[in-house]
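Task card 7
Instruction: Convert sequence to structure tokens.
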Amino acid sequence: MTGLTAHRVAAFITDAFLEGRYTIERVDEHQFRIGLPEIASPWDVLRLVESLSVGPLSADRHDGDVLVSDTRWSTLDADDELDAVADGGAVPASVDSECSLATAENCFAVTPDDEPRTERAKTEDMDVSLLKKGGIYEVHSASDSYYDVDVVAGECSCPDTADRCKHLRRVDLEITAGLVPRPDGRLP
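Output:
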């Protein structure tokens, strides 16, 4: 088989995952939605997302389900046109240049010129991981909350209404320091 098919998606659901009923629904030509058993925890969803994000497949959490896409095709843009995206292609994103690329310590050193949100981004305990090529990251904060950060769009799912919240700033710092993959999924 070639391309994205239900059989290819189903091949990743093995006995290593929860027993129960999984549903695979075609959303469009290049996407499937996987419904997990009712007993699935958020960690089970993340494990499945991680195992599905290989090669041209990209997986993301969506309303308790997993949305699997063929990353060679983007979603509809503002003009409702489907744009092809080359596998592993670079995704433009602006990363703060607040620190040098020399070391991670330089990036997280607090300076007197730092804004309060930048200082919190540098000092608070946060775990950052790339969820999806294209610049979608997940931030696990010290308050045990999870936020999705889109560095390309400059958006975060947190309730902060500031132009650039501490989560977005933290992701930018970790990309610049080389601690997480770049938005295109490649390591620095």
